[in-house]
Amino acid sequence: MTSHESVWRRVMFTALTGLLVVAAASDAAAQRFGRPGTPSAGACFYRDANFEGDYFCVRAGDAIESLPSGLNDQISSIRTFGRNVEVTVFQNRNFGGRSARFGDVRNLRNDGWNDRLSSLQVDGGGRDFGRRDRDREFGGFGNNPERIVRRAYEDVLGREPDESGMRFYRSKIIDEGWSEQQVRESLRNSRENRERSTMTRERASEIVRRAYLSVLRREPDPAGAEGYIARIMRDRWTEADVERELRQSAEFRQARPR
After folding, report:
1. Which of 53, 137, 151, 182 gives 20 to 30 Å between its CA and that of 254?
2. Assigned domain for 8 exists
3. 147-176 burial, b for 16+ CB within 10 Å, e for fewer?
C-alpha cells in the first residue's frame, strides 16, 4: 500500500466515524412518545408506571442531553433490553443535577424520580460514558460515593438525599475517607432523625405547613393537611416526602410554567 492510499484510508475512516457519531446523536435527540419497536440492546422510557402507555426507546451507547418538551419530566417507568444494559438519568438538562442509575424500574415514584428526568444515558452493548470507570475506582458500583450516600439516606431517614446533603457526604467519602458506617452514624445524629423519632402532631402539622408554603405557595387546606399529617405520624414521612407528593398534584402541575 502506498503512502497516499494509507492517508486516504485514514481520512475516509475518520469521516465515516464522524458521520456515525452525528447520526447517533441525531437519532437520540429526535425522540417522541409512541409505540415503536423495542431495541435488541437499549432501554425504553414509558409515560406510565408498569411499562404502560406510550414510550420511546434509546439504543445502548446513546445519550440525550436535553429531552424535548413533550418528553421532559414525563417518564414514569423504564425497561431495559439486552445484556448488562443500565440507564443513568439526570434531573437537569445536559447531564446536570441529581443523578441515579437504574435497570428495570416499574414505578419511578418509588425511587423519587417520577416525572423528573431531563437528560439520560444508556450504557451497555460494549459502550459506556465513563461512569463505570469511576465506580470501579471505589471498588464497584455498590461502593460508589453517590450510591453509599443514597443508601444511607434511604435506610436512616427514609428519603432521597437533597443536593446539599449529597455534596456534603460525597466530599466526606472522597476527601476524608469516610466509610458508609460513618455516613449512617452522622445521619442518625442529625436533627431530622431526632425529630422523626419524637414526632408529635404539632410538629407534623408544621412540617406540612412548610411543605405547602414551599411548593404551592399557600397555607394548607384542612383536608389536605390531615392526610399528610397522618402519613407523617403513621409512615414516618419526611418534609421531603410531602413536598414530592405536592409536586405531583394537579394544582402544582397547572401552576408550573410551561
Report:
1. 53
2. no
3. bbbbebbeebbebbbeeebbeebbebbeee
User: What percent of the chain clears pLDDT 70, i.e. is strictly above it?
Assistant: 78
In terms of DSSP H, where are the helices of 108-249? 131-137, 145-156, 163-176, 180-188, 191-197, 201-215, 222-235, 239-247
Q: CA separation (Å) from 11 to 3, 5, 7, 226?
A: 12, 10, 6, 69
Let me know if residue 76 belongs to a domain.
yes
Average per-residue pLDDT in the chain?
A: 78
**Is residue 180 a contact partner of residue 222, using CB atoms and an 8 Å limit?**
no
Q: Please compute the mean of the pLDDT values over residues 208-231 and round it to a whole number.
A: 92
- Domain range spanning residue 235? 199-252
Cell 447517533 locates to 24
Domain boundary among 129, 149, 183: 129
**Residue pointed to by grid coordinates 475518520:** 14
Residue 57 · residue 38 · CB < 8 Å: yes
